């Protein structure tokens, strides 16, 4: 049993299978399925832990798509993935993943900027010259 978002407990219902595109091709994955008897919401906690919740692409494939999508047109990125890894994806998949990862990176950078301590700078207006021995 695992907690459900509704506040109740979801029960184990058995293993469920799904396809996932990995860097070495398509693989069938078995993972536990939980169902809440109160709200009837199903959960796949392994999908969340493995970074494949709501996607058919493994984290490795998503990194590859983001890399090619950031360097060239999305259709060209699709062709590069086919040529280099032998993976069949659509140009739209390259676009969606590249933009999604780009948005995540931007959000993390903004969070880092907000967390960075404020720095104070002192501007020296004196005219001191270092001795030549220090050059």
Structure description:
With 135 residues, the chain is of the alpha+beta class. It is built from four helices and four strands, in the order ββββαααα. The protein has a four-stranded antiparallel β-sheet. A hairpin with a 2-residue loop joins β2 (9-22) and β3. The longest helix is centred in the C-terminal third of the chain and has 25 residues, at 91-115. It is flat. The N and C termini lie far apart (69 Å).
List the helices and strands and how they pair.
Elements: E1 2-3, E2 9-22, E3 25-35, E4 42-43, H1 45-50, H2 59-71, H3 74-85, H4 91-115
Antiparallel strand pairs: 1-2, 2-3, 3-4
Helix pairs in contact: 2-3, 2-4, 3-4
In short:
The protein has 135 residues and is an alpha+beta fold.
Keywords, separated by commas or semicolons:
4 strands; single chain; 135 residues
């Amino acid at each position: 049993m695992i907690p459900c978002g509704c506040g109740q407990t979801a029960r184990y219902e058995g293993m469920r299978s799904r396809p996932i595109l990995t860097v070495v091709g398509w693989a069938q994955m078995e993972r536990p399925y939980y169902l809440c008897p109160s709200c009837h919401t199903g959960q796949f906690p392994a999908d969340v832990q493995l970074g494949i919740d709501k996607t058919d692409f493994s984290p490795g494939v998503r990194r590859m798509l983001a890399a090619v999508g950031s360097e060239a047109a999305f259709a060209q990125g699709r062709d590069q993935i086919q040529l280099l890894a032998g993976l069949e994806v659509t140009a739209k998949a390259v676009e969606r993943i590249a933009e999604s990862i780009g948005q995540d990176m931007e959000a993390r950078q903004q969070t880092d900027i907000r967390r960075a301590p404020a720095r104070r700078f002192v501007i020296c207006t004196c005219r001191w010259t270092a001795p030549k021995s220090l050059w």
